[in-house]
Amino acid sequence: MILAAFILATGAAARRDRADDAFSGERAMALLEMQCDMGPRLPGSPGHQALRLSIESHADSLGLGFASLCFDRADPGGGGALHLCNLVVTCGDGDGPPLWLGAHYDTRPHCDLEPDPAQAALPLIGANDGASGVAVLLHLAELFAAVPPSRPVALIFFDGEDSGLQGNLSSYCLGSQHLAERWDDFGSPLAGPRPEGLIVIDMVGERGLDIPYEPMSWRAAGDWLEAIFHRAFELGLTAFRPEPGRNVYDDHVPFIQCGLRAVDLIDFDFPQWHTTGDIPAVCAPASLEQVGRLLADIAYRPLDH
Cys-Cys crosslink for 85: which of 20, 70, 193, 254, Cβ 3.0 to 4.6 Å? Predict the structure, then answer.
């Protein structure tokens, strides 16, 4: 944990005096590997605790706002109560509707889709399903600390996304369910004006990344999703395909259900999903860089829609 915090802090310091620094896929890949080196990050595990503290240390080292919003929820797997913490890092100067960018930082408690039954009970390393989105947000925090966007931006690290049971959608996305109901509570770091919207990123590190429209995002916020993909086209980011993909119940859904605009950027066609094969070797800096470049550009240049 101390080593991880040192890696994050030294990487941040190297960027403070480079105001024109662009999003680096190599830097994001290093942050992805750092998380995997902590081991599985299922709630209550040493890896989960280490990552939570490293995210806090990272925000502090950059001089950014940080809040940990903790709560207890029954474990869908029947293991008693889960102590979960959504983490919010606040960036940016100026007024206007905030932009929220989110990813889950927990990993699956077991590899339930593992072809080898002897390994199905193992916890997931979660290089793509977990670490990829977090790596993008951590690197964005470095860029936003060096050159603050001219509006509020919140980086939200959701907990308890992947602790659910197959066939029971409400047992997933526990952190986003909790936050969607309480984001405007007194004292919340997100309280205030309604956001322009929430962009959730999940499984964005796979080699050969291919992100289509997520249908629930399209139905809830089609104009905004279209503007996001048009910005990707303007930037020459070929991983974004403006065609319908598969419905995905992800951390954007509770916010849609609460009346906020939210979309999910995800490549759900991932052969190693929920298996022991979800390791850094299946991820690529180029994929992370495409997603990071898009989100950074949107943060600095609000979308016209």
Answer: 70
Contact predicate 162/123, CB 8 Å: no
For domain 2-300, the question of CATH label 3.40.630.10 is answered with yes
Sketch the domain layout of the chain as residue ranges: 2-300
Per-residue b or e along 55-69, where b marks 16 or more CB atoms closer than 10 Å to that residue's CB: bbbbbebbebebbeb
Instruction: With beta carbons less than 8 A apart as the criterion, state whether 57 and 41 touch.
Output: no
Task: Please name the residue that has the structure tokens 């399903």.
Answer: 129
**Contact 205/284 with Cβ under 8 angstroms?**
yes
pLDDT tens-digit readout, 145-177: 999 999 999 999 999 999 888 888 888 999 999
User: Exposure of 150 by Cβ count < 10 A (0-12 exposed, 13-18 middle, 19+ buried)?
Assistant: middle
Q: Residue 19 to residues 38, 140, 143, 148, 253: CA-CA distances in angstroms? A: 30, 13, 8, 9, 35
Q: What predicted TM-score, i.e. pTM, was given to this entire model?
A: 0.93
- The token duo for 245 is 């993909």
Token pair 């994001």: residue = 28
